[in-house]
Amino acid sequence: MRKTAAENTNIRLKAVLDVLSEGVLSGESQNAGAVLAEALVRVPLNAYEAELLSGGIPRGHKSLTTATAKLVKAGWLVKGRSGWTITEDGQRATVAFPDAASFSAALDAGTPVPADTPLPVAAPAKPAAEKAPAKVAATKAEKAPSKVAKVADKAAKLIEGAVAPVAKAVQHKAEADAEAQAPAVENSLETVDQPAAVAVAGDFNTLLGAPENWAPQYDEAQMKLDTLDQLWKLSAEIPAGYYNFKIALNRSWDENYGAFGAFDGANHELHHVGGQLTIRYDHRTRDITVN
Question: What is the pTM (predicted TM-score) of this model?
Fold first, then answer.
């Protein structure tokens, strides 16, 4: 039987906990973006869920990101500025409610995890006789991509396959509308309701001169509005490195946007080669670009 979007979201919530629990057992840490991507790989988007919303994010991805608040409320997930962490109660929930139906029912009803539920354990290692010879195993290991690379590749193909037709249709319509109503578009730029302030809040704010990181209240983190193209911009010289950030409005965390322009979404991840960095934010679409 075909499942509804709401049912799929609940199944993906279980996948989120499963992925995080597996990471604890294997010792492999994954950021929030990778966890969400793997959940979408395990439970693919249907046609309705693949439709693009404002900001270019698929409907199903945004629904899942928003629904993870239920995991936080249940005490199974903790969202921190540096990423997501599954709690011990969350790990036990994957054992106490092993199938999607019981998991969804427990989550919706607020059913606590039974106190005697054990923590999940890793699968036992295979006997030595079943293992491949060391040389062959090493060769396979050299050729096989890492788990993270597999997840990224599957996620990229999933998103590309799901949203490409929709994105193409949206692009064609936008081009046609722009050509037919060019004067109206130009005039509309003056009437965009912009926030009072927009900040880039992340783990590199101190490099911009702010007293601390992840603090949208400081002047050093604020972007400037270009009234010509209605984009908020921040440019600075940043050393090479791996960074995380979000867009926060009006000098607080009350309204913030993460990956794919999702409200209170996963951190944006930035691999910077060093030198000049420019971040742009479009409040009309919640799109965020970096170069």
Answer: 0.51
